[in-house]
Amino acid sequence: MSTLHDTQDQLVGRYTYALMNTFGPPKLALVRGEGATVWDSDGKAYLDLLGGIAVNSLGHAHPALVGAVTEQLTTLGHISNFFTSPPQVELAEKLLSLLGTGGAPAQGKVFLANSGTEANEGAFKLTRRTGRTHVVVAEGGFHGRTMGALALTSKAAYREPFEPLPGEVTFVPYGDAEALAAAVTDATAAICLEPVQGEAGVVVPPDGYLAAARSIADEHGSLLWFDEVQSGVGRTGIWFEHQRAGVLPDIVTLAKGLGGGFPIGAVVGLGRAADLLEPGNHGTTFGGNPVACAAALAVLRTIEDDGLLAHVSALGAHVRAGLAAEPRVTEVRGHGLLIGLDLAAPVAAHVVVAAQDAGYIVNMPTPSRIRLAPPLVLTQAEADRFLADWPGILDAAWAAAETAGA
Length: 406
Ligand SMILES: *Cc1c(COP(=O)(O)O)cnc(C)c1O
Known about the structure:
It is a single chain. Helix 12 (308-324) packs parallel to helix 14 (380-403) and helix 13 packs across helix 14 (380-403). The chain folds into two domains: 8-61 and 307-405, Aspartate Aminotransferase, domain 1 (Alpha-Beta Complex); 76-305, Type I PLP-dependent aspartate aminotransferase-like (Major domain) (Aspartate Aminotransferase, domain 2), CATH 3.40.640. The protein starts with 7 loop residues before the first helix and ends with a helix. The chain is built from 14 helices and 15 strands. The chain has helices spanning 8-18, 51-54, 63-73, 86-98, 116-128, 147-151, 156-159, 177-183, 209-220, 242-245, 290-305, 308-324, 348-358, 380-403, and strands at 30-34, 37-40, 45-48, 108-113, 134-138, 169-172, 188-193, 223-227, 251-254, 265-270, 329-335, 338-343, 360-361, 363-366, 369-372. It has a seven-stranded mixed beta sheet, sandwiched between helices. Strands 1-2-3-13 form a four-stranded mixed beta sheet. Strands 11-12-15-14 form a four-stranded antiparallel beta sheet. Strand 2 and strand 3 (45-48) form a beta hairpin. It is globular and about 55 Å long. Residues 115-117, 120, 142-144, 194, 198-199, 227, 229-230, 255-256 line the site of pyridoxal-5'-phosphate.
């Protein structure tokens, strides 16, 4: 069975028989990637403006990532958490240093996991060690699919088939400091927020919201937890999105972009949250394994060495301006290369198809929203190629919607 030489239809057909139908049929069968480009099994190239959903920070097959993973895997691949290894210690130290202020590393401790939902699961357990159980989260927020993280996720369609979920969780409108203040009590263990809501379609809160969350948490002795699984690690043009507001959280969770495509997640507990989990409280077999840590270190070093934060900020502003110049786009949001836009009509599904036809991968978080989260190494020339084709993609999408009777 030479999978590599199957056509799109053959691979998708085989997928349908062999894999659970949790994601719907795959839109493409991809066989290769380089930089911000991926190729399907029929040889067609696509500019990947989704980056594995904000994961492929260094694009595809980046030599620094491939080199670090290869070297670590051929040196020491897995050892269990009875033991430690240099990449694990170095990664934890590096994360604390990047989360620090004024040149000093953050006072905190790191737990390494394998995914975003697992990082959030660990953080959720950590909040229980305060002796309180109530958590306040935002409507539109997405925190993952395991039972605990799902309990914090607002979308009814994700939650309802699996209720009852762990409580007690209060949902408040995102960006509304008054609603947050009204929901938090002295029984609240934590406030958990994305500093920018990713899955909701890149929703940026009003200025002052994160600072208000900090003071509300302080007033009630609650922990402030920022889920930076999507927004963290340079995606928005700074290391962590909450640093834009200058607000210091008690917990930060990370995953997606951290490993550049290698699965890894992290819980960072700062201040009093650093020592709430004690021996026996939590664990993982794979979390913090040397290969994943080497991958994350390669990502962090490359972002630093190649000046990618400045590149991401500048290119993001350029792309947002280009997208906003199109009259069928009613709003463009985001920072750096986490970009969301609203369309004048609910034709996002047609935009995804038209973009794919034209050789671009984009994502629709809602029927009228498009999200872009391309590799941080996307070049200006690649971005400009997309912006030049953007009006034509919208023409095709609007025409298809009309044909479909939308
Ligand atoms: C994707 C995401 C998660 C879940 O991460 P997985 O690796 O898919 O489990 C959690 N929080 C946020 C903000 C995310 O974007």
